[in-house]
Design goal:
Belongs to the cytochrome P450 family. Its cofactor is heme. Keywords: Heme, Iron, Metal-binding, Monooxygenase, Oxidoreductase. There is one protein chain. The protein is mainly alpha-helical and 204 residues long. The chain has one domain: Cytochrome p450 (Orthogonal Bundle). The chain has a two-stranded antiparallel sheet with strand order 1-4. A hairpin with a 2-residue loop joins strand 2 and strand 3. The chain is globular and about 60 Å long. The chain starts with a helix and ends with a strand. The mean pLDDT is 93.
Length: 204
């Protein structure tokens, strides 16, 4: 049950936050949909075999993971021995929480850290698979998320098909600035107020 809930809850949160950022950034939405149209014009569905070709969608998802890691405090760790970090003495067997969200918005590593800019990864080798410590939504090391490959594939496939099937817009009278970005409290960070969008079928 833990594995099932962890896999579905975090993936659902990631899809919602990505759609939030795309609806607030229509240029990114258009680029993602144009890429999908080019790759899958005339196809009924986006399939797993299409995903490696969707390079811009991967940048969108990477930026979404940076701004909205689904579990921002990661899994608690415990120090195996005493150590000192930046002058702070940390005894052995201390429970440690790593704030992946704060790291991913640190202006020391990221230019304009609070803005949604998928293009920042065009010429960057930084990835979210645990090798680059400035972006660790799935954790790092031996105890990183074991479902990373399945999760990323599931989210990419869901997002690609949502953008393939529909054009999206906000309800009448609601602007991008009106979209509430407040986060709900919880181990997995969801949007506090539901995201309401109008879907219009796209020609295929």
């Amino acid at each position: 049950m833990d594995i099932f809930i962890a896999g579905t809850d975090t993936s659902a949160a990631t899809i919602v936050w990505t759609m939030v950022e795309l609806i607030k950034n229509p240029e990114a939405m258009k680029k993602a949909q144009d890429e999908i149209t080019e790759i899958a014009w005339g196809k009924e569905n986006i399939e797993e075999s299409d995903l490696p070709k969707l390079s811009y969608l991967k940048l969108v998802l990477k930026e979404s993971f940076r701004l909205h890691p689904p579990a921002p405090l990661l899994i608690p760790r415990e120090t195996t021995r005493a150590c000192t970090i930046n002058g702070y003495e940390i005894p052995a067997k201390t429970r440690i929480l790593i704030n992946a969200r704060t790291i991913a918005r640190d202006p020391f590593y990221w230019k304009d850290p609070d803005s949604f800019k998928p293009e920042r990864f065009f010429y960057s080798s930084v990835d979210f698979r645990g090798h680059d410590y400035e972006l660790i939504p799935f954790g790092i090391g031996r105890r990183s998320c074991p479902g990373i490959n399945f999760s990323v594939l599931t989210v990419e496939l869901a997002l690609a098909n949502l953008l393939h099937y529909f054009d999206w817009k906000l309800p009448h009278g609601i602007t991008r600035d009106d979209v509430d970005m407040v986060e709900a409290v919880g181990l997995t960070v969801h949007k506090k107020t539901p995201l309401l969008l109008i879907a219009t079928p796209r020609p295929r």
